[in-house]
Amino acid sequence: MRPPRLARACLRRLLPASHRDLVLQDLDDEFARHIAPSRSRLGARWWYWRQAVGSWPHAFRLRHPRVAVADSRPAHRRQHLRAVVADARFAWRLYLGRPALTAAATATLAVGIAVTTAALSVVHAVLLRPLPYEEPGALVHVGEVNTDDTRGIHGPAGGNLSWPDFTDYRRAQRALVDLVGYSGGSRTLTTSAGTPDRVPMAEVTAGFFDLLGVRPQTGRLFTSDDNEPGAPPVVLLSDGAWRRRFGGDPAIVGGTIGVNGRPATVIGVLPASFAFPLRGQAELWLPIRPSSSQLERRYFHWLNVIGRLRPDVPIEAARADLDRIAAGFAAIDPTYHAATASAVLPLTDVIVGDVRPVLLLVLGAAALVLVVACANVAGLVVAERAARARELAVRGALGATRGRLVTQMLVESLVLSAPGLLLGLGAGAGLVSLVVASLPAARRAALPHLDSVTLHPVVVATIVVVSVGAALLVGLVPALRRPATGLATGLRVAGASRRGAQLSPSLVAAQVALSVVLLASAGVVGQSVWRLLAVSPGFEVDGLFTARANLGGARYATPEARLEFHRSLTTRLAALTGVSGVATISQLPLTGAGNSGTFLVESVPDAPERSTRIRSVSTNYFEVMGVPVLAGRGFSDRDVAGSPRVLVVNETFARMFFDGRPLDQRVAFPFFTDRPFWQIVGVVGDEQLRDLDMAPLPIAYFAYPQTPDGEFGLVVRTPGDPAALTGPARAVLAELDPALPLFSPQTLDEILSASLGVLRRRVVLTLLALFAVAAIVVSIVGLQGLVAQTVSERTREIAVRVSLGARPAQVVGSVLRRGLAPAAVGAVAGLALYLLVARALSGLVFDVSPVDPATLAAVVVVMVGVAALACVAPARRAATISPTEAIKGE
Are 253 and 268 in contact (CB under 8 A)? Predict the structure, then answer.
């Protein structure tokens, strides 16, 4: 094997003629004798190239014997490193001797880094970290939409499927590996201790966990046999339920627990890392076993479905494939599927939902705080370097190069910013824990990784890189001016140090501008929260205690048994001290849209079916809740089983389907097997089923005695503290049936506060308000420092003016004008900048414009007032300057 010709030719050109043949001969002999026989062709050629490249310093020295390149480099590096270490020691001593400057810079940077770290940690956990499943990017959520908006049979994009639709999709689709279904709810759990508790649960089809790539930490998963009707009851436990309720005992696998009063075998425990945000708090996982009505009724949409895309199949192809199947449903079921289309969305988008823009908005606001903090530190450093202009001029006159001075400034900036970086990271970790802990448990569990959010290495690295970059930029700001070269010139320039701080007004104006953006954003969101809370939910919120009860088990299998228990429970609760009324409803207001059903109108038999939300309420529900009866009557004690079936509808129902005149109309609901007609006897005001910022939905109310359900919500009105009724209500239920738990006790005001529409605006408002306050405080510090520096630089001028007869008011006015000028410029620039970013708030505002003139005017007044207050103290000091002392000091 011959040596590589290109490497040999390069080395021949580098070597001088006197050594060329000798070096090449030695290298060729070594290659031929030892390297080529013992290595592969590629390895041998690679060896020769390494030898040739490694020989270039020696060849260079042979050509230029007076230049020691290889030897001088390490010495130069060591000398440079010693200089940097010396600069760091000098900076440390310098800033220890200036505690005010160090404390201001450290506190300012710590605030900016803390809020940015917290916001970035949450954004990284929720939006950037992948879901904890195998190939999460291939997971999709499958639902159906009704393209005919007037019918309202199906929900929005990503809505539920009926069981027949699910099985048809699963059998005929070709774009997905598989489709699996899940549903949610709650069950009564009874452990060996015998204490019942109502816990959240999820029901899934076979293959659900296999699709996600989840393996149990002990035991087994569901099989297709577990989904069969009549199969033995089995259950999987979440890791949290296993540890909290059973002490992490592995012997529980194979044992039995009580689920809704029936024994169920525990077949396994899910891993601690498993979380499914769409059923985030589920403690029990059960196999889905559809009822006969669910198996048959194509219009009964109740099943959530997810799937996994086949390799190299885009989501658009999956949508087209499922749309092909959905188009065939019209021929099978023209009544409910005449305008059905599929809805295929990435699972991440369904989980994150509307939270993405909110989190990005919060991250942007936090970044503005960090920019304000960096601008403030830059202003402090500019002022500090201006005060040290004499020192830097002397260093330059004594031979320090421009590069050497710039290196010193950069090292000093890094040393100054290091404590703020460390404190900010620590405070950011505490802040993110505080913010996450302040959210309701249900909201935390509904977002991926939020319960386990920590300072991720990616977040720490990003913050460190940004902070170090900002520190280097701050260090370069004073170095933009070319230092004086001569000693006399340097001392003369140092005497006019005010020019060294010429960037400070610009930095202060930038801080004020960004503060205006944050304050205006907080003001608009605050207006929205105030107006949203002023919206009437359709009932009287104050003094209402709520809870839920579920009548499971064979004891309450008949309508008569459920009705008798309902009567006994409400009677005993009404007898409690301080209780003024007790009522029930199948699903409490402000907790979701709930069940829906289609109906036909007797007087218009050819009209298509319509869809409405349905509720079953006690006969006194409207009186207890304070829902007004607008027409006809509400329910009464004569509306019982066996009496004429009556219906009460809300105002939206009457307007949408009967032009506001529904009284005495008769409607039939297909989900009742005997299809009876129900007469509408009354119209009541609209209750909010979901959030206050959503339009009311049509509701049909049934009287509980005519439709006794096994699960209902309690509403108890009291003039006192409604939260104090939790204990007495539990005691009443335990007396009636110790096996039934009272679950989800809370006041209706707590439900209102935890509703998504209010909660997300309150969280954003709180964070924006904190960020705005932090930015304003930092801006005040920067503005006050600028004015104080201006007074210090103008001491001689002010003294001369005073000696010539200037009054204190004139001196104060002059200082205030110089201080308020950058604040005014910043306020105007902030308004212009806010107009550019106002669109980001469009999803959070309610009943107010993002550019509300009154709010923006108030923001400007506040910022100018704050700026004026920041300038008062330095201005008053300027008015007390003594001409004699000032001139003597000069």
Answer: yes
Maximum distance among all Cα pairs of the chain, rounded to whole angstroms: 121
Tokens (6 digits) for 870: 């920041």
* Number of residues in the chain: 890
Percent helix / strand / coil, the chain, rounded to 5: 55, 15, 30
Instruction: Using alpha carbons, select from 837, 834, 823, 827 the residue that is nearest to residue 867.
Output: 823
pLDDT, one tens digit per residue, over 100-157 is 778 888 888 898 899 899 999 999 989 888 888 999 999 999 998 877 654 444 443 3
Pull the structure tokens for residue 219: 């035991």
Alpha-helical segments (H) within 838-889: 853-879, 883-889
How far, in Å, CA of 540 to CA of 717, rounded? 10
- 605 phi-psi bin (left φ>0, alpha ψ -120 to 50, beta other): alpha
Check if the beta carbon of residue 374 is closer than 8 Å to that of residue 467.
Answer: no
Query: Mind spelling out the 3-state secondary structure of 317-350?
Result: HHHHHHHHHHHCHHHHCHHHHCCEEEEEEEHHHH
Residue that wins the pLDDT comparison between 234 and 774: 234
Our CA dihedral for 652, 656, 657, 663, rounded to 10 degrees, sits at 40
Q: Inform me whether the pLDDT recorded for 715 exceeds 90.
A: yes
What letter would DSSP give residue 128? I
Distance CA 259, CA 251 (A): 18
* Strands annotated E in 124-216: 139-146, 176-190, 196-204
The span from the first CA to the last CA of the chain, in angstroms, equals 84
Q: Based on C-alpha coordinates, what's the Rg of the chain?
A: 38
Alpha carbon distance 558, 580 (integer Å): 30
Judged against a pLDDT cut of 80, whether residue 342 lies above it is answered with: yes
Q: What is the dihedral of CA 802, 805, 810, 815, to 10 degrees?
A: -20
Q: Which residues pair with 582 in a beta bridge?
A: 716
Tell me the per-residue pLDDT of 757-788, one tens digit each, with 9 for 90 and over. Answer: 787 788 888 888 888 888 888 777 777 776 77
Q: What is the pTM (predicted TM-score) of this model? A: 0.76
**Phi, psi at 855, each rounded to 5°:** -65, -45
CB within 8 Å of 456: residues ≥ 6 apart: 121, 124, 125, 129
For the record, the structure tokens of 772 come out as 């705005």
Q: Which helix (H) or strand (E) holds 617?
A: strand 610-617
Dihedral (C-alpha) 621, 627, 628, 629: value to the nearest 10 degrees?
-40
